[in-house]
Amino acid sequence: MDSGSPDRQLPVTERTRHHRLREQGSLDRDQLDAILDAGFLCHLGVTVDGNLLVVPTVYGSDGSTLYFHGSVASRSLVASPAAAVCVTVTHVDGLVLARSVFEHGVNYRSAMIFGVPTMVTDPEEKLAGLRCLTEHAAPGQWDYARRPSRKELAATSLLALSLDEASVKIRTGAPDDGDSEDAQLGLWAGVLPLRATWGDLEPDPLLPPATEAPAHLTKRVGTAAN
Amino acid sequence: MDSGSPDRQLPVTERTRHHRLREQGSLDRDQLDAILDAGFLCHLGVTVDGNLLVVPTVYGSDGSTLYFHGSVASRSLVASPAAAVCVTVTHVDGLVLARSVFEHGVNYRSAMIFGVPTMVTDPEEKLAGLRCLTEHAAPGQWDYARRPSRKELAATSLLALSLDEASVKIRTGAPDDGDSEDAQLGLWAGVLPLRATWGDLEPDPLLPPATEAPAHLTKRVGTAAN
């Protein structure tokens, strides 16, 4: 991978060093940002009462901090400020169909972030973090929908995780066995791409019929989702 | 959620009990199978040298066992047979756009599987597991592509994880605030669906131009991917 300019490099740590498949690894901060910007759902790994859990949850990123949240009753969020977590964001771009089963694989973009999250308690910082998270997944909705009340804010745990210790892996392109002896087998090989697209808006059945969807939502219909 | 017939119920354990959002939780074995059948990429949570990692990896399921694999050099796979893991499979179906920011959410189908994986060493079982995994992600390719050689088999770690301890969560449908006082705000609310679709086949540039793609691949183009 292109490793980018030195000032946009992520630091190498024991956890972010790429032990294998080095050609897929990257410490380019811009690639980290691009992967986080392209998604809104992460898998949060956290140990709760000795049990390892991998929980899908929504996130937002402001380029230096990842925010994620949940009810204050949530097991994984109550536990995670005390413990190191790993947050992984993955976009699957296609199946790599090689001449041999052994060379089959997946085209993907993935980021892993390591650290100990902190609970955001300052009201102003909490509101800013929730805005970041909301606008990341649903741009335009923070200004359109009703914002959180004091009671709702109190019922929400917001966690902040620094993006300082992170690692990126990317695979793109054709299978790797095009110049191997398996190429003589005469088999088709290539990529079956996977596309994520926003579909047509589905109005809440309880909505008055004349209610029009705002432009910040209608303009997403039919566009790529990652 | 519909909890299904009693004989298709997953057992409740300390880890699979739904602590919150019970209405989204399910112990229906058929729903677990459906979620696993609809995908091929999981997030494997494992502790390696004291570090929690969440690794995206390909899986296959035969309805009672989940298989996943990797190079024998992979850190996470070498460590995981010794330790309990959590494997999570998530399909994102759309953004839930409510009248209030607080009620925003995601429509999704997610399965979490807990257990201690075993390394598959018996050659016949290993071949069967790899076939399951390959056919799960890329149906038709096991019979079409060149199968693993003895050397390739030796270079692959295959892990098996029982599906006995698993938990399912699903959210579908409209936002929850259609009958709240926020409905008086006159805002649009509903769902922005996310569709995953297989795109047009991309032939390996190294392929002789006349090479035709097999029917088991061409028939997937344009179909739903989860």
From TrEMBL, chains A, B:
InterPro entries: Pyridox_Oxase-rel, Split_barrel_FMN-bd
Annotated stretches, region: Disordered: 203-226
Protein name: Pyridoxamine 5'-phosphate oxidase family protein
Organism listed in the record: Streptomyces caniferus
